[in-house]
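The passage that follows is intended for readers who have already worked through the single-chain material. We present the inputs for a multi-component assembly, then the predicted structure in tokenized form, and finally a short commentary. You are encouraged to pause after the input and sketch how you expect the pieces to fit together before reading on.
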Amino acid sequence: MKRITILTLLSLVFLSSCGTSTPTPPPTATLLPTPTITPTSTLPPSTVTPAATPTFTPPPRIDRVLIVTFDGLRPDAIAAAEMDNVIALMQSGAYTLTAQTIMPSVTLPAHTSMLLGTCPSKHIVRWNEYVPENGYAIGTDIFDLAHGAGLQTVMITGKQKLSQITEPASLDFFAFVDETDKIEDNYSLEQLAIQQVRQGFNVMFLHFPEGDLAGHEYGWMSQRQLLAYAYDDLEFGRVLEALKQTGMYESTMIIVTSDHGGHDTTHGHNQPEDMTIPWIISGPRVKPGQLSEQVYVTDTAATAAFVLGLPLQPEWDGAPVLEAFGLPITAHSKPCIN
Ligand SMILES: [Zn+2]
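Having made your guess, compare it with the prediction:
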């Protein structure tokens, strides 16, 4: 509990220094006493010397978080596939190419851990098919939190099974596009995402499935798979362009990651090729550079909550990646053992 309290306070300090105003402060946050700010929990003091005419530049706002996953993306595929938009975010943001997913290293359990912040033993989603009779993951996910705080939540996925991560009531918009059915859908994933960008959102999860599908058919790191990732990256670029055109880019936190890697034509095993994933964050107040901290897939939900000022959940195994903001690492995630 102490860890959570400290994190909540850190989050408040972070937000107050960000000047974020759009997200409704969560009830638990407003009930807390004014945090005692210690030197180690604040951003470094400004080194600007007083000018003759004092001016005030408001700190950049963080109004929304976009979480993008490229299914099955091994970190070494980013450069091999020349994913220029992802590479640009690595250069402008903080990143690690040695983040770790959970076992089983498969799509639905891993995405569930990503968006609920917990290990499979808690969220119980160990199945990897669309099984509607199983219901939804157990626990508080990032959509539950954001929607409960009055924020606009969006999930756009290329695999129907990901709809079992959160209850429909926690999503303001959900879309599933099956691009494997050989039928021309009316909208592509990125077109739907661009529509939602234009309508305004606070939390959007966008999932590109094609790389994983190509991996199962042609092999991990095969030319066909790399082409799929390159194509996904182009589509992702159009979403980023929409954020820029609407003037939202500068106030958007972008997290790019994956659910698992792969080897041969499969994944799901406890070996580095399957377990290692990229984790990239770019946006306001991010300190660019390579992260030294070990990042886990469960850290994504906690980081998204942290930047939006939403309360971190006591049951979460993940922690905010504070190093990405140049903050001292006072929170540590608990690696999943099952
Ligand atoms: Zn997957």
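Commentary: The two ends are 22 Å apart (CA to CA). The first strand starts at residue 64 and ends at 70. How closely did your sketch match?
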